[in-house]
Write a structure and sequence with these properties.
Length: 99
Amino acid sequence: MVVERRIEAELVLDVAAFVGAACDADDPRAAAFEVAREIAGKSPEAIRAAKRMLNNLAIDPGPALLAESVEQMKLMGGANQLEAVRANIDKRAPRFADV
């Protein structure tokens, strides 16, 4: 949700294997900083929305899906979403405003 990595569901069920795969176990500290840099390069608004969504995972799926739609509507067409699109088109790093 916050970082763009695919992890097989079976791997997630095995917590030890998941942690090893998630942090490239050779150098966990370096891997943690890599993930932190990846997250820091994303829209602050989108990261906060993802955090709110993660906090809602334990609730009933209906309200959780509605909450996701509400978060998406807040982000769509906003300055940071438009900057992400422009940066992608221009093949450059985005310059997000922390609003």
